[in-house]
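User: I've been trying to design a sequence by hand for this structure and keep getting stuck. Would you show me what you'd pick, starting by listing the structure so we're on the same page?

Assistant: Good idea, let's start from the same input. This is the structure you sent:
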């Protein structure tokens, strides 16, 4: 259900939101889904958040391959301890103006900038600070 990174002290969802819910999510839906996770107490915790770009990039490991991006041949470079066959593009909490937000593409580790309404092969992976 969760994985704790002992280097950063961050606890992550083992599944991204696509694997958790079976659907892609835009930025607005990601925010709402995290609120629902907190209301229900996902993994008996109530303080889940959408990560920053900096926090997301701690998951990128160029020397590790988790799986291929669903529907394409691109590799997802995160630790295979995370669930496989998820999204290769994860939203961050960081906005770029009114209409766009940033995220990270895990085949390159680079930041993307996209419309907040876009669901195209995007999801999120919530985190919390492990205390």
């Amino acid at each position: 259900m969760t994985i704790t990174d002992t280097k950063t002290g961050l606890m992550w969802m083992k599944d991204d939101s696509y694997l958790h819910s079976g659907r892609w999510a835009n930025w607005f839906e990601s925010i709402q889904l995290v609120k629902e996770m907190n209301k229900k107490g996902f993994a008996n915790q109530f303080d889940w958040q959408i990560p920053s770009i900096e926090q997301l990039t701690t998951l990128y490991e160029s020397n590790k391959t988790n799986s291929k991006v669903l529907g394409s041949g691109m590799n997802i470079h995160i630790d295979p301890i995370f669930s496989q066959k998820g999204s290769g593009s994860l939203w961050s909490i960081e906005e770029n103006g009114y209409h766009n937000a940033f995220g990270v593409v895990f085949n390159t580790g680079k930041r993307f900038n996209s419309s907040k309404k876009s669901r195209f092969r995007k999801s999120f992976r919530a985190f919390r600070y492990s205390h």
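That's my pick for every position. To get oriented when you compare it with your attempt: Strands lie at 2-5, 10-13, 67-68, 75-76, 89-96, 100-105, 110-115, 122-123, 127-129. The chain has a mean pLDDT of 94.
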